[in-house]
Design goal:
The protein has helices at residues 7-21, 80-84, and strands at 2-3, 24-30, 36-42, 62-68, 72-75, 86-93, 103-109, 114-120, 125-130, 134-140, 147-152. The protein is mainly β and 153 residues long. The protein has one domain (2-42, 61-152). The radius of gyration is 15 Å and the shape is globular.
Length: 153
Amino acid sequence: MNDNFSVKDRKDVKEELAAALDKIEWTEFTSLNGEKFEVGFLEDEVNSDRNRPSNKAVSKEASWKVHWPCPSRGDTMSPMEDFTCIEKWSLEFDTTALSVYKHILRIKNIWENYTYHFIDETKDSYKLSCHRKGWHYVRYNSKKPTIIEVKYK
């Protein structure tokens, strides 16, 4: 579900992201199309012990069609949350002064050991491996940054 931002919501998200980005440990990778991107997470983030159902029986890669334009955010709903284990997401412009990336995707997953591939409208793919619950971040550049598909395993 996409969330239309009010001016106050937009300001709150920007402030929250700015505070988090200074504390994230980033690692650089190369996308499917050969473009550099970074993934990161907050080292000191505390995970809640949520006993949520999960479809961990998925042993093969599966996918979910989405429409996540920049800027937007949302909470995933069942059945998507049940299968992908993504609870919340946002896609924003990366406005940090030193960043060479234009877009930042963040997801909050509710299950460990999932690997995601986020595909944008250019069909480029950004891989994110989540070994813990909580917020994870992907910074990337794209002429068409809207995320149109989430592949997961």
